[in-house]
Specification:
This protein is of the alpha+beta class. 32% of the residues lie in helices and 33% in strands. The protein has five helices and eight strands. Helix 1 packs across helix 2. The radius of gyration is 20 Å and the shape is globular.
Length: 183
């Protein structure tokens, strides 16, 4: 997966995006290459952004295939998306940026007899993640012991998330009002 990520990351960066996660997910028909990216300033990606990144990746992979260096030989589906509000935590900076919010962390090796921690993130220092687990109190683990982690949707998280751009909403509202006045 590192080789695929190394191919995708420059394409995302060229558009001003940061990769959040790249993974293969098994599907009923064919596997899906899931790519989550974000604009650093908003933590989100709009539909046009997703389409632009998808095109860049497809074009790059097509060129490699024509050169006989197909990075993914089997059939697959490409899916590009924003991480969403209840986003996965995949990078050290995610644990720092979202400290104070509720998260669920699934571990590779148990900590205090638990393979899942859930509670308020307390941040990260170096490679050590801290979380105030609801049942076990403050727990720490290394970043490399995390199997998967994500934020839990709460009112506090919704309030802290930068809303998707509403650019153009005034024009839509104005056009609707004009149509109503013409009737």
């Amino acid at each position: 997966m590192t080789a695929i990520m190394n191919l995708i990351e420059p394409e995302a960066e060229a558009l001003g995006f940061e990769l959040v996660r790249v993974q293969f997910v098994s599907g009923a028909d064919e596997p899906t290459l899931q790519i989550m990216a974000e604009r650093p300033e908003t933590g989100q990606l709009g539909i046009d952004d997703c389409a632009a990144l998808s095109r860049r990746i497809s074009e790059k992979f097509d060129v490699l295939e024509e050169e006989g260096r197909d990075p993914i030989e089997d059939a697959y589906r490409l899916e590009v998306s924003s991480p969403g509000i209840d986003r996965p935590l995949t990078r050290a900076k995610d644990y720092a940026n979202w400290a104070g919010h509720e998260a669920r962390i699934n571990l590779i090796d148990a900590v205090s007899g638990k393979k899942q921690l859930r509670g308020l993130l307390d941040g990260i220092e170096g490679e050590i993640i801290a979380i105030d687990d609801r049942k076990a109190g403050r727990q720490t683990t290394t970043l490399d012991n995390v199997h998967s982690a994500k934020l839990i949707l709460t009112d506090a998280l919704i309030a802290a998330t930068i809303p998707v751009s509403a650019d153009g909403a005034d024009e839509i509202e104005e056009d609707t009002l004009n149509e109503e006045q013409e009737d």
